Amino acid sequence: MERLKKNFVWIPIALMGISVVAKIFGLTQGADVFPEPRLAEKLVLILTIEIICLAFFILPKTRKIGFFLLCSYLGGAIAIDLIYGILSPFFPSFILILFWISIYLDNRNLFINA
């Protein structure tokens, strides 16, 4: 069980890493995949925010703040997916659930009512 706690955190990190790589390749191919031109113009900013949030979560000392930043980021991703219908909101929702599970396994004190 202890091994699961330590290694589960890497599952959502790997999925977010895939998202970062996909956005980087989207930059090199042109951002014509976005139906809304304003989103395509902000792709570099979105990528930068995603990398910063992920970096905060990867470092154990800043994992809590990274978790809350990622919750905000993924909430925005779900909203954009619902508004513009780019993709199904399933992918960011699934990653968000995995982050919640991983932070629960890593630090249950965040969920205890003091």
Structure in words:
The protein has 6 helices and no strands. By secondary structure, it is mainly alpha-helical. It has one domain (2-106). The protein is elongated and about 45 Å long.
Q: How many β-strand stretches?
A: 0
Distance between the termini: 26 Å
Backbone CA Rg: 15 Å
Q: Rough shape?
A: elongated
- The domain tally reads 1
How much strand?
Answer: under 5%
The succession of helices and strands, N to C, reads HHHHHH
Category by helix and strand content? mainly alpha
* Stretches with pLDDT under 50, minimum 5 residues: none
The largest β sheet comes out as: none
Number of helices: 6
Share in helix? over 70%
What is the overall pLDDT average?
83
SSE order and pairing:
Elements: H1 2-8, H2 10-29, H3 37-41, H4 43-58, H5 63-84, H6 90-106
Helix pairs in contact: 1-6, 2-4, 2-6, 4-5, 5-6
How would you concisely characterize the structure shown here?
With 114 residues, the chain is mainly alpha-helical. Helices cover 76% and strands 0% of the residues.
Tag the structure with descriptive keywords.
mainly alpha; 6 helices; 114 residues; 0% strand
